[in-house]
Amino acid sequence: MDIKLKKLLDQKTQDVWRETLLLHKRSPETRVASSLSCVELLVSMYYGDILKYNPANPSWEGRDRFIISKGHGSISLYPILADLGFFPEEELMNIGKAGSFLGSIPDPVIPGYETVNGSLGHGLGVACGMAIALERKKSSSQVFVMVGDGELYEGSNWEALMLAGHHRLNNLTLIVDHNKISMLDFCDNIISHGSLGTKFEAFDWKVAEFDGHDIETVHHHLEAARKDNSSGPKALIAHTVKGKGGGHLENDSLCHIKSLKPEHVDELLENKERP
Q1: pLDDT 10s digits, 45-75
Q2: CB-hemisphere CA count at 13 Å for 182?
Q3: Is domain 3-270 annotated with CATH 3.30.360.10?
Q4: Sheet order of strands, 143-148 included
Q5: First vs last Cα of the chain: how many Å apart?
């Protein structure tokens, strides 16, 4: 990776980690643990020249479509969109307040979000529809969708996986934030996913697995998926830590529904760097 790009991505990772914690401090109902696990993934997408987008025109026809299916766990995208100019940075101070479009669960009223993401399990199906439509329009735009591993308990995901594999949707990339903790426990204690990669391959998807917190590795796999024009959809399984950089929330089996006290946020931010 180019040294300049590596420096940029490292700095943006730190910035987004800090801003995510501050957003949670202002709005404790946000799902901070789920949001902290995907910081490097989102930073690479938006600052690593992976996505085509236009902050001045979020509905630009030539954009890539990025579906954040794990919507509750994407508060870390708010500071990215603000930094890039999708909306004024001052709006970050209003999260959760009456009159603000920044809620604890995002929806398309936020510039930069494509879909309603409150009910899990629908994002991949919507992404399949978008990918088919773009293909028929002969558009060069691509579709990316991010899901959580707990979300994969929803059967609609597997219908979409089967559909995408059958239609060889080579303009579709699935990113799994594989943090291994669902809403109420470790995934292995609920229904083990076993080898996700093997399951996806059975549906005719190309699969890559990697460390979701190594920014160089993350960017490498996203870039490779972006450039891969061969037949078939791609699945990127990013092994992450739920609550990464969130102190005692890290790998807590109930971290999905827990909040940090304001003083705990302050203590974490005193360290100045994401652990």
Answers
A1: 999 999 999 999 999 999 999 999 998 999 9
A2: 17
A3: no
A4: 65-68, 143-148, 172-178, 234-239, 206-211
A5: 22
Average confidence score pLDDT of the chain:
95
The packing angle between helices 3-26 and 215-227, to 10°, is 110
Sign of torsion, CA 111 81 46 237?
negative
Contact by Cβ (8 Å): 164, 128: yes
> Which pLDDT score, from 0 to 100, does residue 160 have?
97
User: Token match 């398309």: residue?
Assistant: 108
Q: What is the pLDDT of residue 116?
A: 80
* 256 contacts 34 by C-beta, under 8 angstroms: yes
Are 160 and 124 spatial neighbours (Cβ–Cβ below 8 Å)?
yes
- Among 171, 143, 162, CA closest to 233: 171
Q: Which two tokens stand for residue 189?
A: 């204690």
For residues 116 and 206, which has the higher predicted lDDT (pLDDT)?
206
How confident is the model over 226-265, as pLDDT tens digits? 999 888 999 999 999 999 999 999 989 999 999 999 999 9
At a CB cut-off of 8 Å and minimum separation 6, what does 98 contact? none
Residue 44 C-beta-side C-alpha neighbours within 13 Å = 24
172-178/206-211 β-pairing: unpaired
Enumerate the domain spans of the chain: 3-270
108 vs 58: CA distance, rounded Å: 11
